[in-house]
From TrEMBL:
GO terms for cellular component: cytoplasm. This is Aldehyde dehydrogenase. The keyword Metal-binding does not apply. Residues 11-443 form the Aldehyde dehydrogenase domain. Coiled coil: none annotated. Keywords: Carotenoid biosynthesis, NAD, Oxidoreductase. One of its GO terms (biological process) is aldehyde metabolic process. GO terms for molecular function: aldehyde dehydrogenase (NAD+) activity. InterPro entries: Ald_DH/histidinol_DH (IPR016161), Ald_DH_C (IPR016163), Ald_DH_CS_GLU (IPR029510), Ald_DH_N (IPR016162), Aldehyde_DH_dom (IPR015590), Aldehyde_DH_NAD(P) (IPR012394). Belongs to the aldehyde dehydrogenase family.
Protein backbone atom coordinates (compact mmCIF):
# COMPACT_ATOMS: atom_id res chain seq x y z
CA UNK A 1 0.00 0.00 0.00
CA UNK A 2 1.41 3.43 -0.94
CA UNK A 3 1.68 6.02 1.81
CA UNK A 4 -0.80 8.88 1.58
CA UNK A 5 0.88 12.03 0.26
CA UNK A 6 0.13 15.25 2.09
CA UNK A 7 0.96 18.81 1.00
CA UNK A 8 3.74 20.73 2.76
CA UNK A 9 2.75 23.27 5.38
CA UNK A 10 4.23 26.67 4.71
CA UNK A 11 3.56 29.94 6.47
CA UNK A 12 2.16 32.88 4.53
CA UNK A 13 4.65 35.76 4.21
CA UNK A 14 3.31 38.53 6.47
CA UNK A 15 3.90 41.17 3.78
CA UNK A 16 1.28 39.44 1.61
CA UNK A 17 -1.43 39.78 4.24
CA UNK A 18 -2.58 43.38 3.52
CA UNK A 19 -3.00 42.64 -0.20
CA UNK A 20 -4.95 39.42 0.52
CA UNK A 21 -7.35 41.35 2.74
CA UNK A 22 -7.73 44.21 0.27
CA UNK A 23 -8.44 41.72 -2.55
CA UNK A 24 -11.19 40.16 -0.47
CA UNK A 25 -12.59 43.57 0.42
CA UNK A 26 -12.82 44.58 -3.26
CA UNK A 27 -14.58 41.29 -4.00
CA UNK A 28 -17.04 41.93 -1.21
CA UNK A 29 -17.86 45.36 -2.64
CA UNK A 30 -18.18 43.88 -6.12
CA UNK A 31 -21.36 42.27 -4.62
CA UNK A 32 -20.19 38.88 -5.88
CA UNK A 33 -20.96 37.07 -2.62
CA UNK A 34 -24.47 38.49 -2.21
CA UNK A 35 -26.57 36.17 -4.42
CA UNK A 36 -27.71 32.91 -2.85
CA UNK A 37 -26.68 31.03 -6.00
CA UNK A 38 -23.02 32.08 -5.57
CA UNK A 39 -22.90 31.09 -1.91
CA UNK A 40 -24.61 27.76 -2.54
CA UNK A 41 -22.23 26.90 -5.35
CA UNK A 42 -19.18 27.69 -3.17
CA UNK A 43 -20.50 25.54 -0.33
CA UNK A 44 -21.40 22.65 -2.61
CA UNK A 45 -17.94 22.72 -4.24
CA UNK A 46 -16.39 22.78 -0.78
CA UNK A 47 -18.43 19.71 0.16
CA UNK A 48 -17.12 17.71 -2.77
CA UNK A 49 -13.53 18.83 -2.30
CA UNK A 50 -13.69 17.63 1.32
CA UNK A 51 -15.33 14.36 0.24
CA UNK A 52 -12.69 13.83 -2.46
CA UNK A 53 -9.85 14.31 0.04
CA UNK A 54 -11.18 12.23 2.91
CA UNK A 55 -8.27 9.83 2.86
CA UNK A 56 -5.70 12.65 3.12
CA UNK A 57 -7.74 14.42 5.81
CA UNK A 58 -7.84 11.21 7.85
CA UNK A 59 -4.08 10.85 7.46
CA UNK A 60 -3.56 14.50 8.47
CA UNK A 61 -5.65 13.97 11.65
CA UNK A 62 -3.60 10.85 12.39
CA UNK A 63 -0.28 12.63 11.95
CA UNK A 64 -1.24 15.77 13.86
CA UNK A 65 -3.16 14.28 16.79
CA UNK A 66 -3.03 10.49 16.44
CA UNK A 67 -6.79 10.65 15.86
CA UNK A 68 -8.43 7.34 15.07
CA UNK A 69 -10.62 6.93 12.00
CA UNK A 70 -13.96 6.92 13.85
CA UNK A 71 -13.23 10.13 15.77
CA UNK A 72 -11.75 11.89 12.75
CA UNK A 73 -14.75 10.98 10.61
CA UNK A 74 -17.41 11.79 13.19
CA UNK A 75 -15.95 14.93 14.76
CA UNK A 76 -14.14 16.44 11.78
CA UNK A 77 -14.89 15.23 8.26
CA UNK A 78 -18.51 14.06 8.45
CA UNK A 79 -19.17 16.94 10.81
CA UNK A 80 -18.27 19.67 8.33
CA UNK A 81 -19.89 17.83 5.41
CA UNK A 82 -23.10 17.60 7.43
CA UNK A 83 -22.77 21.30 8.24
CA UNK A 84 -22.57 22.17 4.55
CA UNK A 85 -25.65 20.07 3.73
CA UNK A 86 -27.63 21.68 6.54
CA UNK A 87 -26.59 25.16 5.36
CA UNK A 88 -27.32 24.57 1.70
CA UNK A 89 -30.70 22.99 2.44
CA UNK A 90 -31.85 25.92 4.55
CA UNK A 91 -29.93 28.93 3.26
CA UNK A 92 -32.50 30.42 0.91
CA UNK A 93 -35.17 30.26 3.61
CA UNK A 94 -32.89 31.93 6.17
CA UNK A 95 -31.89 34.63 3.69
CA UNK A 96 -35.49 35.77 3.20
CA UNK A 97 -36.55 39.06 4.75
CA UNK A 98 -38.39 38.62 8.04
CA UNK A 99 -41.55 40.45 9.01
CA UNK A 100 -41.19 41.62 12.61
CA UNK A 101 -44.01 40.72 14.95
CA UNK A 102 -45.78 42.86 17.54
CA UNK A 103 -45.78 46.07 15.56
CA UNK A 104 -48.22 48.88 16.45
CA UNK A 105 -50.90 49.10 13.73
CA UNK A 106 -49.66 52.53 12.69
CA UNK A 107 -46.22 51.13 11.98
CA UNK A 108 -47.48 48.36 9.71
CA UNK A 109 -48.08 50.97 6.98
CA UNK A 110 -44.31 51.39 6.53
CA UNK A 111 -43.82 47.63 5.89
CA UNK A 112 -41.13 47.01 8.52
CA UNK A 113 -38.90 44.05 7.72
CA UNK A 114 -35.52 42.66 8.65
CA UNK A 115 -33.04 42.02 5.90
CA UNK A 116 -30.16 39.57 6.38
CA UNK A 117 -27.04 41.42 5.26
CA UNK A 118 -23.56 39.93 5.17
CA UNK A 119 -21.10 41.66 7.49
CA UNK A 120 -18.26 42.05 4.97
CA UNK A 121 -14.74 40.65 5.26
CA UNK A 122 -14.34 38.30 8.18
CA UNK A 123 -11.44 36.54 9.85
CA UNK A 124 -11.79 33.01 11.26
CA UNK A 125 -9.01 31.81 13.58
CA UNK A 126 -9.00 28.09 14.41
CA UNK A 127 -7.77 26.08 17.40
CA UNK A 128 -5.77 22.87 17.25
CA UNK A 129 -7.95 20.27 18.95
CA UNK A 130 -10.54 19.83 16.20
CA UNK A 131 -8.43 21.44 13.51
CA UNK A 132 -10.87 20.94 10.63
CA UNK A 133 -14.16 21.28 12.47
CA UNK A 134 -13.24 24.47 14.35
CA UNK A 135 -11.86 26.14 11.20
CA UNK A 136 -14.17 25.02 8.40
CA UNK A 137 -17.20 25.03 10.76
CA UNK A 138 -17.36 28.80 11.30
CA UNK A 139 -16.07 29.46 7.76
CA UNK A 140 -19.09 27.58 6.34
CA UNK A 141 -21.39 29.92 8.32
CA UNK A 142 -19.47 32.97 7.08
CA UNK A 143 -19.69 31.85 3.44
CA UNK A 144 -23.40 31.05 3.81
CA UNK A 145 -24.04 34.53 5.20
CA UNK A 146 -22.40 36.12 2.13
CA UNK A 147 -19.09 37.31 3.56
CA UNK A 148 -15.63 37.05 2.11
CA UNK A 149 -13.40 35.07 4.48
CA UNK A 150 -9.79 34.68 5.56
CA UNK A 151 -9.23 31.42 7.41
CA UNK A 152 -6.24 31.06 9.74
CA UNK A 153 -6.04 27.40 10.82
CA UNK A 154 -4.07 26.30 13.87
CA UNK A 155 -0.38 25.95 13.06
CA UNK A 156 -0.18 23.27 15.75
CA UNK A 157 -1.80 20.85 13.32
CA UNK A 158 0.25 21.62 10.21
CA UNK A 159 -0.95 18.64 8.15
CA UNK A 160 -4.61 19.49 8.64
CA UNK A 161 -3.85 23.17 7.99
CA UNK A 162 -2.08 22.39 4.71
CA UNK A 163 -4.91 20.08 3.61
CA UNK A 164 -7.53 22.74 4.35
CA UNK A 165 -5.58 25.25 2.27
CA UNK A 166 -5.39 22.80 -0.62
CA UNK A 167 -9.13 22.12 -0.40
CA UNK A 168 -9.98 25.82 -0.27
CA UNK A 169 -7.76 26.56 -3.26
CA UNK A 170 -9.40 23.76 -5.23
CA UNK A 171 -13.00 24.50 -4.32
CA UNK A 172 -13.46 28.16 -3.52
CA UNK A 173 -13.29 31.41 -5.46
CA UNK A 174 -9.79 32.80 -4.65
CA UNK A 175 -11.06 36.35 -5.03
CA UNK A 176 -13.39 35.82 -2.07
CA UNK A 177 -11.81 33.26 0.24
CA UNK A 178 -8.21 32.82 1.37
CA UNK A 179 -6.26 30.65 3.76
CA UNK A 180 -3.44 32.34 5.69
CA UNK A 181 -1.02 29.99 7.44
CA UNK A 182 1.12 30.66 10.45
CA UNK A 183 1.38 31.17 14.17
CA UNK A 184 1.76 34.26 16.35
CA UNK A 185 3.53 36.60 13.84
CA UNK A 186 1.07 35.85 11.05
CA UNK A 187 -1.99 36.05 13.32
CA UNK A 188 -0.68 39.31 14.78
CA UNK A 189 -0.31 40.70 11.23
CA UNK A 190 -3.86 39.59 10.47
CA UNK A 191 -5.13 41.29 13.61
CA UNK A 192 -3.64 44.60 12.43
CA UNK A 193 -6.05 44.57 9.49
CA UNK A 194 -9.53 46.01 9.56
CA UNK A 195 -12.21 43.30 9.73
CA UNK A 196 -15.97 43.26 9.82
CA UNK A 197 -15.94 40.39 12.32
CA UNK A 198 -13.31 38.21 13.95
CA UNK A 199 -14.32 34.69 14.91
CA UNK A 200 -11.78 33.21 17.29
CA UNK A 201 -11.57 29.77 18.86
CA UNK A 202 -8.81 29.17 21.40
CA UNK A 203 -7.53 30.02 24.84
CA UNK A 204 -8.62 32.84 27.13
CA UNK A 205 -5.16 34.46 27.00
CA UNK A 206 -5.08 34.65 23.21
CA UNK A 207 -8.71 35.80 23.18
CA UNK A 208 -7.69 38.87 25.20
CA UNK A 209 -5.09 39.73 22.53
CA UNK A 210 -7.70 39.25 19.79
CA UNK A 211 -10.34 41.32 21.63
CA UNK A 212 -7.89 44.17 22.25
CA UNK A 213 -6.87 44.27 18.59
CA UNK A 214 -10.53 44.19 17.55
CA UNK A 215 -11.46 46.99 19.97
CA UNK A 216 -9.13 49.40 18.13
CA UNK A 217 -11.47 49.31 15.14
CA UNK A 218 -14.65 48.48 17.09
CA UNK A 219 -14.69 45.17 15.25
CA UNK A 220 -17.27 42.71 16.58
CA UNK A 221 -15.90 39.40 17.82
CA UNK A 222 -17.15 35.91 18.48
CA UNK A 223 -14.91 34.22 21.03
CA UNK A 224 -15.14 30.47 21.57
CA UNK A 225 -13.08 29.72 24.66
CA UNK A 226 -13.53 27.16 27.34
CA UNK A 227 -12.45 24.77 29.99
CA UNK A 228 -12.88 24.34 33.74
CA UNK A 229 -16.25 22.67 33.31
CA UNK A 230 -17.67 20.89 36.35
CA UNK A 231 -19.48 17.56 36.42
CA UNK A 232 -21.62 16.89 39.47
CA UNK A 233 -22.64 13.38 40.52
CA UNK A 234 -25.06 13.02 43.43
CA UNK A 235 -25.84 9.85 45.39
CA UNK A 236 -29.16 9.57 43.57
CA UNK A 237 -27.39 9.31 40.20
CA UNK A 238 -26.88 6.11 38.27
CA UNK A 239 -23.19 6.07 39.14
CA UNK A 240 -22.18 3.38 36.67
CA UNK A 241 -23.81 5.28 33.83
CA UNK A 242 -22.22 8.54 34.98
CA UNK A 243 -18.78 6.89 34.98
CA UNK A 244 -19.13 5.54 31.41
CA UNK A 245 -20.51 8.78 30.04
CA UNK A 246 -17.93 10.97 31.75
CA UNK A 247 -15.11 8.68 30.65
CA UNK A 248 -16.36 8.99 27.06
CA UNK A 249 -16.32 12.78 27.42
CA UNK A 250 -12.75 12.76 28.74
CA UNK A 251 -11.15 10.22 26.44
CA UNK A 252 -12.42 11.63 23.16
CA UNK A 253 -9.42 13.31 21.50
CA UNK A 254 -7.42 12.36 24.65
CA UNK A 255 -9.36 14.93 26.67
CA UNK A 256 -8.34 17.82 24.39
CA UNK A 257 -11.92 19.02 24.18
CA UNK A 258 -13.00 22.46 25.38
CA UNK A 259 -16.35 21.19 26.67
CA UNK A 260 -15.22 18.04 28.44
CA UNK A 261 -15.55 18.12 32.23
CA UNK A 262 -12.41 19.46 33.89
CA UNK A 263 -13.27 17.80 37.21
CA UNK A 264 -15.97 15.70 38.87
CA UNK A 265 -17.64 16.69 42.14
CA UNK A 266 -19.15 13.54 43.59
CA UNK A 267 -21.14 12.86 46.73
CA UNK A 268 -18.66 11.26 49.15
CA UNK A 269 -21.01 8.32 49.74
CA UNK A 270 -20.74 7.22 46.12
CA UNK A 271 -17.18 8.43 45.37
CA UNK A 272 -15.62 4.92 45.80
CA UNK A 273 -18.26 3.44 43.47
CA UNK A 274 -17.63 6.14 40.86
CA UNK A 275 -13.90 5.41 40.90
CA UNK A 276 -14.51 1.64 40.61
CA UNK A 277 -16.89 2.24 37.72
CA UNK A 278 -14.45 4.59 35.96
CA UNK A 279 -11.83 1.82 36.12
CA UNK A 280 -14.34 -0.72 34.80
CA UNK A 281 -15.32 1.59 31.91
CA UNK A 282 -11.65 2.13 31.11
CA UNK A 283 -11.22 -1.66 30.69
CA UNK A 284 -14.34 -1.79 28.54
CA UNK A 285 -13.28 1.09 26.23
CA UNK A 286 -9.62 0.10 25.95
CA UNK A 287 -9.37 -3.67 26.64
CA UNK A 288 -5.63 -3.80 25.80
CA UNK A 289 -4.88 -0.44 27.36
CA UNK A 290 -5.27 3.06 25.88
CA UNK A 291 -1.72 3.05 24.48
CA UNK A 292 -2.44 0.05 22.28
CA UNK A 293 -5.83 1.36 21.17
CA UNK A 294 -6.13 2.72 17.61
CA UNK A 295 -9.04 4.81 18.93
CA UNK A 296 -7.12 6.83 21.50
CA UNK A 297 -5.51 10.11 20.37
CA UNK A 298 -2.16 11.61 21.27
CA UNK A 299 -1.35 14.98 22.86
CA UNK A 300 -0.79 17.59 20.18
CA UNK A 301 2.88 18.37 20.94
CA UNK A 302 5.61 18.18 23.58
CA UNK A 303 4.77 21.60 25.01
CA UNK A 304 1.20 20.54 25.72
CA UNK A 305 2.43 17.14 26.97
CA UNK A 306 4.80 18.83 29.45
CA UNK A 307 2.08 21.23 30.61
CA UNK A 308 -0.30 18.36 31.41
CA UNK A 309 2.50 16.37 33.06
CA UNK A 310 3.40 19.38 35.23
CA UNK A 311 -0.22 19.67 36.35
CA UNK A 312 -0.25 16.04 37.36
CA UNK A 313 3.08 16.41 39.17
CA UNK A 314 1.79 19.41 41.12
CA UNK A 315 -1.42 17.85 42.46
CA UNK A 316 -1.72 16.86 46.09
CA UNK A 317 -4.28 14.26 44.99
CA UNK A 318 -3.75 10.51 44.67
CA UNK A 319 -3.66 8.73 41.32
CA UNK A 320 -6.17 5.90 41.57
CA UNK A 321 -6.19 4.75 37.93
CA UNK A 322 -3.90 5.22 34.94
CA UNK A 323 -0.98 7.63 35.27
CA UNK A 324 1.42 6.26 32.66
CA UNK A 325 2.98 8.58 30.07
CA UNK A 326 5.32 8.37 27.11
CA UNK A 327 6.83 11.64 25.90
CA UNK A 328 8.22 10.06 22.71
CA UNK A 329 4.74 9.01 21.67
CA UNK A 330 3.03 12.03 23.23
CA UNK A 331 0.86 9.52 25.07
CA UNK A 332 -0.90 10.22 28.36
CA UNK A 333 -3.07 7.49 29.79
CA UNK A 334 -6.57 8.45 30.98
CA UNK A 335 -5.80 9.14 34.64
CA UNK A 336 -8.20 9.27 37.56
CA UNK A 337 -7.00 11.31 40.53
CA UNK A 338 -8.79 11.51 43.86
CA UNK A 339 -8.35 15.04 45.19
CA UNK A 340 -9.50 16.56 48.45
CA UNK A 341 -8.73 20.26 48.00
CA UNK A 342 -11.04 22.42 45.84
CA UNK A 343 -8.00 24.66 45.20
CA UNK A 344 -5.96 21.79 43.73
CA UNK A 345 -4.40 22.79 40.39
CA UNK A 346 -6.31 19.96 38.73
CA UNK A 347 -9.55 21.67 39.75
CA UNK A 348 -8.72 25.33 39.20
CA UNK A 349 -6.69 25.06 35.98
CA UNK A 350 -7.90 23.76 32.63
CA UNK A 351 -6.17 20.41 32.01
CA UNK A 352 -7.18 20.07 28.35
CA UNK A 353 -5.95 16.52 28.55
CA UNK A 354 -7.04 13.08 29.82
CA UNK A 355 -6.90 13.90 33.54
CA UNK A 356 -10.00 13.01 35.57
CA UNK A 357 -9.84 14.60 39.02
CA UNK A 358 -12.58 13.37 41.35
CA UNK A 359 -13.38 15.54 44.37
CA UNK A 360 -15.71 14.00 47.01
CA UNK A 361 -18.16 16.52 48.49
CA UNK A 362 -20.60 16.44 51.43
CA UNK A 363 -23.72 17.29 49.47
CA UNK A 364 -25.18 19.10 46.46
CA UNK A 365 -24.96 22.51 48.17
CA UNK A 366 -21.22 22.12 48.49
CA UNK A 367 -20.86 20.86 44.93
CA UNK A 368 -22.72 23.86 43.53
CA UNK A 369 -20.78 26.33 45.60
CA UNK A 370 -17.39 24.80 44.61
CA UNK A 371 -18.43 24.83 40.95
CA UNK A 372 -19.50 28.50 41.14
CA UNK A 373 -16.39 29.55 43.06
CA UNK A 374 -13.98 27.70 40.77
CA UNK A 375 -15.31 29.20 37.55
CA UNK A 376 -18.50 31.21 37.55
CA UNK A 377 -19.09 30.98 33.78
CA UNK A 378 -17.73 27.71 32.35
CA UNK A 379 -18.47 26.47 28.85
CA UNK A 380 -20.41 23.45 30.10
CA UNK A 381 -21.97 21.94 33.22
CA UNK A 382 -22.79 18.22 33.56
CA UNK A 383 -25.21 17.06 36.21
CA UNK A 384 -26.08 13.50 37.23
CA UNK A 385 -28.79 12.93 39.86
CA UNK A 386 -32.54 13.08 40.43
CA UNK A 387 -34.65 15.50 38.42
CA UNK A 388 -34.96 17.85 41.39
CA UNK A 389 -31.18 17.82 41.84
CA UNK A 390 -30.29 18.38 38.20
CA UNK A 391 -32.93 21.15 38.02
CA UNK A 392 -31.19 22.79 40.97
CA UNK A 393 -27.79 22.54 39.28
CA UNK A 394 -29.22 24.26 36.19
CA UNK A 395 -31.00 26.91 38.24
CA UNK A 396 -28.04 27.75 40.46
CA UNK A 397 -25.13 27.72 38.02
CA UNK A 398 -24.30 29.50 34.77
CA UNK A 399 -22.57 28.05 31.70
CA UNK A 400 -22.44 28.26 27.93
CA UNK A 401 -24.41 25.01 27.66
CA UNK A 402 -25.26 22.02 29.82
CA UNK A 403 -25.94 18.32 29.49
CA UNK A 404 -28.05 16.53 32.04
CA UNK A 405 -27.20 12.92 32.76
CA UNK A 406 -24.32 12.99 30.27
CA UNK A 407 -20.92 14.40 29.38
CA UNK A 408 -21.00 17.17 26.73
CA UNK A 409 -23.89 15.75 24.66
CA UNK A 410 -25.30 19.22 23.99
CA UNK A 411 -22.01 20.02 22.29
CA UNK A 412 -22.13 17.19 19.78
CA UNK A 413 -25.45 18.11 18.24
CA UNK A 414 -24.25 19.78 15.05
CA UNK A 415 -27.26 22.04 14.59
CA UNK A 416 -27.63 23.22 18.20
CA UNK A 417 -26.26 26.73 18.84
CA UNK A 418 -22.93 26.42 20.62
CA UNK A 419 -21.05 29.07 22.56
CA UNK A 420 -19.85 30.26 25.94
CA UNK A 421 -20.91 32.88 28.42
CA UNK A 422 -18.78 35.37 30.32
CA UNK A 423 -15.14 34.31 30.08
CA UNK A 424 -15.94 31.00 28.34
CA UNK A 425 -16.85 32.98 25.28
CA UNK A 426 -19.17 35.33 23.53
CA UNK A 427 -21.37 34.63 20.52
CA UNK A 428 -22.64 31.29 19.29
CA UNK A 429 -22.58 29.31 16.07
CA UNK A 430 -23.55 25.98 14.44
CA UNK A 431 -26.70 25.31 12.48
CA UNK A 432 -28.73 28.45 11.92
CA UNK A 433 -26.69 30.21 14.60
CA UNK A 434 -23.69 30.04 12.22
CA UNK A 435 -25.62 31.97 9.60
CA UNK A 436 -26.85 34.47 12.21
CA UNK A 437 -23.34 34.86 13.65
CA UNK A 438 -22.07 36.35 10.37
CA UNK A 439 -25.25 38.22 9.42
CA UNK A 440 -26.37 41.73 10.20
CA UNK A 441 -30.11 41.97 10.82
CA UNK A 442 -30.87 45.19 9.03
CA UNK A 443 -34.19 46.80 9.95
CA UNK A 444 -35.86 48.44 6.98
CA UNK A 445 -39.02 50.52 6.50
CA UNK A 446 -40.60 52.13 3.45
CA UNK A 447 -42.85 55.15 3.98
CA UNK A 448 -45.59 55.45 1.33
CA UNK A 449 -46.44 58.88 -0.07
CA UNK A 450 -50.07 58.62 1.01
CA UNK A 451 -48.98 58.60 4.67
CA UNK A 452 -48.02 62.25 4.58
CA UNK A 453 -51.28 63.34 6.17
CA UNK A 454 -50.85 60.89 9.03
CA UNK A 455 -47.23 61.90 9.45
CA UNK A 456 -48.06 65.57 9.74
CA UNK A 457 -48.17 64.89 13.47
CA UNK A 458 -44.37 64.76 13.58
CA UNK A 459 -43.73 68.10 11.90
CA UNK A 460 -43.51 71.38 13.81
CA UNK A 461 -45.12 73.66 14.71
CA UNK A 462 -46.60 71.46 17.44
CA UNK A 463 -49.30 73.92 18.55
CA UNK A 464 -49.23 73.29 22.30
CA UNK A 465 -50.36 69.76 23.20
CA UNK A 466 -52.80 68.91 20.43
CA UNK A 467 -50.25 67.01 18.30
CA UNK A 468 -48.95 65.22 21.38
CA UNK A 469 -52.48 63.94 22.08
CA UNK A 470 -52.81 62.83 18.48
CA UNK A 471 -49.43 61.07 18.69
CA UNK A 472 -50.44 59.23 21.86
CA UNK A 473 -53.61 57.98 20.21
CA UNK A 474 -51.51 56.44 17.44
CA UNK A 475 -50.26 53.47 19.42
CA UNK A 476 -48.49 54.42 22.66
CA UNK A 477 -48.82 51.46 25.02
CA UNK A 478 -50.56 51.77 28.38
CA UNK A 479 -49.10 50.02 31.46
CA UNK A 480 -50.76 46.78 32.57
CA UNK A 481 -49.10 47.06 36.01
CA UNK A 482 -49.64 49.21 39.07
CA UNK A 483 -47.22 51.37 41.02
CA UNK A 484 -46.14 48.40 43.19
CA UNK A 485 -45.04 46.44 40.15
CA UNK A 486 -48.03 44.09 40.30
CA UNK A 487 -49.76 43.13 37.11
CA UNK A 488 -53.25 44.63 36.82
CA UNK A 489 -55.83 41.89 36.37
CA UNK A 490 -59.12 42.47 34.56
CA UNK A 491 -62.32 41.58 36.45
CA UNK A 492 -63.16 38.60 34.23
CA UNK A 493 -59.68 37.12 34.59
CA UNK A 494 -59.84 37.68 38.36
CA UNK A 495 -63.10 35.77 38.55
CA UNK A 496 -61.76 32.93 36.45
CA UNK A 497 -58.58 32.55 38.48
CA UNK A 498 -60.36 33.41 41.75
CA UNK A 499 -57.49 35.72 42.45
CA UNK A 500 -54.93 32.89 42.61
CA UNK A 501 -52.67 34.72 40.17
CA UNK A 502 -51.56 31.42 38.71
CA UNK A 503 -52.08 31.56 34.98
CA UNK A 504 -51.83 27.79 34.41
CA UNK A 505 -54.32 27.00 37.19
CA UNK A 506 -56.43 29.88 35.93
CA UNK A 507 -56.33 28.56 32.37
CA UNK A 508 -57.45 25.15 33.62
CA UNK A 509 -60.30 26.72 35.56
CA UNK A 510 -61.21 28.85 32.56
CA UNK A 511 -61.34 25.73 30.35
CA UNK A 512 -63.54 24.00 32.95
CA UNK A 513 -65.91 26.96 33.20
CA UNK A 514 -66.05 27.26 29.41
CA UNK A 515 -66.78 23.50 29.17
CA UNK A 516 -69.61 23.74 31.72
CA UNK A 517 -71.01 26.78 29.93
CA UNK A 518 -70.97 25.07 26.53
CA UNK A 519 -72.54 21.90 27.98
CA UNK A 520 -75.32 23.92 29.62
CA UNK A 521 -75.95 25.81 26.39
CA UNK A 522 -76.10 22.59 24.40
CA UNK A 523 -78.50 21.12 26.97
CA UNK A 524 -80.72 24.16 26.80
CA UNK A 525 -80.79 24.03 23.04
CA UNK A 526 -81.83 20.39 23.34
CA UNK A 527 -78.84 19.23 21.37
CA UNK A 528 -77.79 16.55 23.85
CA UNK A 529 -81.32 15.18 24.01
CA UNK A 530 -81.63 15.17 20.20
CA UNK A 531 -78.23 13.58 19.96
CA UNK A 532 -79.22 10.79 22.36
CA UNK A 533 -82.48 10.15 20.49
CA UNK A 534 -80.83 10.24 17.06
P1 LIG B 1 -4.53 29.11 21.34
O1 LIG B 1 -5.17 30.28 21.96
O2 LIG B 1 -3.14 28.80 21.71
O3 LIG B 1 -4.53 29.23 19.74
C1 LIG B 1 -5.68 29.52 19.01
C2 LIG B 1 -5.30 30.30 17.77
O4 LIG B 1 -4.73 31.55 18.13
C3 LIG B 1 -4.30 29.60 16.87
O5 LIG B 1 -4.71 29.72 15.54
C4 LIG B 1 -3.01 30.34 17.13
O6 LIG B 1 -2.18 30.42 15.98
C5 LIG B 1 -3.47 31.73 17.53
N1 LIG B 1 -2.59 32.35 18.52
C6 LIG B 1 -1.98 31.74 19.57
N2 LIG B 1 -1.29 32.65 20.30
C7 LIG B 1 -1.46 33.84 19.70
C8 LIG B 1 -0.99 35.16 19.97
N3 LIG B 1 -0.20 35.42 20.99
N4 LIG B 1 -1.35 36.15 19.13
C9 LIG B 1 -2.17 35.90 18.09
N5 LIG B 1 -2.62 34.68 17.79
C10 LIG B 1 -2.28 33.66 18.57
O7 LIG B 1 -5.50 27.88 21.63
P2 LIG B 1 -5.28 26.34 21.29
O8 LIG B 1 -4.11 25.84 22.07
O9 LIG B 1 -5.27 26.13 19.83
O10 LIG B 1 -6.61 25.70 21.84
C11 LIG B 1 -6.78 25.36 23.19
C12 LIG B 1 -7.71 26.32 23.91
O11 LIG B 1 -8.84 26.60 23.11
C13 LIG B 1 -8.27 25.72 25.18
O12 LIG B 1 -8.29 26.73 26.18
C14 LIG B 1 -9.68 25.32 24.82
O13 LIG B 1 -10.57 25.32 25.91
C15 LIG B 1 -10.05 26.35 23.81
N6 LIG B 1 -11.02 25.84 22.84
C16 LIG B 1 -12.28 26.34 22.83
C17 LIG B 1 -13.22 25.85 21.94
C18 LIG B 1 -14.63 26.36 21.89
O14 LIG B 1 -15.32 26.07 20.90
N7 LIG B 1 -15.13 27.07 22.86
C19 LIG B 1 -12.84 24.85 21.05
C20 LIG B 1 -11.56 24.37 21.09
C21 LIG B 1 -10.64 24.88 21.98
Amino acid sequence: MTAVQLPEFSTTPVEQIPSIVSRLRSSFFSQKTRPAAFRLRQLRKLYWAIADHEEELLEACKRDLGKGIFEAMVSEIEWVKNDICFMTQNLERWMKDEKPEDMAWTHKFVSPRIRKDPLGVVLVIGAFNFPINLAFGPMIGAIAAGNTVVLKPSEQCPNCAAMMQLIMEKALDPECYACVQGGIPETSALLEQNWDKIFFTGSVNTAKIVAQAAAKNLTPVALELGGKNPAIVTKKADVQLAARRLLWAKTMNAGQVCISQNYILVDKEVAPTLITELKAAMKEFFPSGAKQSPDYSRIVNLRAFNRIKKMLDSTSGKIVAGGTMDADQLFIEPTVIEVSDPKDPLIVEESFGPLIPVLPVDNLDQAISIANETHATPLGVYAFGSKAETDRVLAETRSGGASINDGFFHGVIPTLAFGGVGDSGTGAYRGKASFDCFTHRRSITKTPNWMEKLLAVRYPPFDGTSKLKQYRAMGILKPDFDRDGRQKIGLLWYLITLGSGSASKGALRAALIAGIYLALRALMEGRIWKGLKG
